[in-house]
Amino acid sequence: MTEEQGKKHVLLVEDSPTQAQYMRLLLEDAGYRTTLAENGQKGIEIAETAQPDVILLDVVLPDLDGFTVCHRIRQRSRLYIPILMLTEKRTDMEDKVGGLTAGADEYLSKTSEDRELLARVASLLRIRQVIEDIYNRMENGEQSYQVLRQPALTDRLTGLYNRHYFAEDLHRQFALAQRYHNPLGFIMMAVDFSPDFTTRYGEPAGDWMLQALATLMKENVREVDMVARYGKQEFVILLPMIDIGETAALADRLRGLVEQQAWQHPSFGPLHITVSLGVAAIPMQGIETAERLIACADKALQRAKAAGCNRIEIHNPGADDQPSSAPP
After folding, report:
1. CATH 3.30.70.270 fits 154-320, yes or no
2. How far is CA 46 from the centre of its chain?
3. CA–CA distances in Å: residue 220 to residues 251, 255, 258, 260, 294
4. What is the pTM of this model?
5. pLDDT tens digits for 274-287?
6. What is the pLDDT of residues 155-166, one digit of tens each?
7. Structural domain boundaries of the chain?
8. Which CATH number fits domain 9-150: 3.40.50.2300, 3.30.390.30, 3.90.190.20, 3.30.230.10?
């Protein structure tokens, strides 16, 4: 190991070139090895691949807000990485609470003295070392951590996030999008004619189909997007920083990919599978809560299925807000 590789690794997620250069020099003068990410998506990718010892994360970034980045890093990290969130403001209680809620360990204003920043970094590194020592004393420490963590987050059949964890993330993302006036896209997808499919081919084939659809969706969304299993034959996709037009475009692309896929079952041969999708987003008329976002996408999905399936429908405030004429 070289002397440079032996230094503690700090990931700095900062879009301001001036601020980034200043902090990088400060950290390197203090003996740290630093890596710079100019936006949130890059920060998430570096955190996942390089596993830095500590992360300094700006609240305001050009693509994703720091809270979303923090939350995604917490979701994807194999082991604990301390996160120090940075803000321009000295006393913004909402930002502080938002950062800590998203999973940050410390919160510091950029106007703080250099020695305070370095002291916070050193403190977080000490915490990281204590946790690493605990892992090292455990047999298969990392595997044990993942075994305990994963069932609480994921659906056993598909490996996607489960409905419970999706609900938590939706409320967090919805609140952040409203606070910072950012768009948030949402897709609800259902397999067409799923009861007929299961009746004809059986439950194992139905499970195979759901697993295949889950793989297709994961391969065609961004790292920051959340895909979850919502019901027996339903999936949801949460899309930070994506408006209604881009959300509809992704929904239609997914619909086309499912329709065009050469589904080849090992026992039953080629199968024809299609899906219907309902799309909603904020900002949008009449969507003031996370629950309302789900309801609007669900109504759009029902319109898609009623219109013949294998199609997408976008939330229509005029049509979807009308009371249902169906009997209770």
Report:
1. yes
2. 16
3. 10, 11, 11, 14, 22
4. 0.63
5. 999 999 999 998 89
6. 889 989 998 889
7. 9-150, 154-320
8. 3.40.50.2300
